[in-house]
Amino acid sequence: MRRVAGIAALAFCAAAQAAPPTPLASGDVAALLAPPSKGVKVIAIWALDCAYCEENLSALRAWQRSHADVDLVFVSTDAMSQAGALEARLKAAKLDDVPSRAYADATPERLGFLIDPSWGGETPRTVAIRADGSKKAVSGALDTDRIARLVGVPAS
Question: What is the pTM of this model?
Answer without folding.
Answer: 0.86
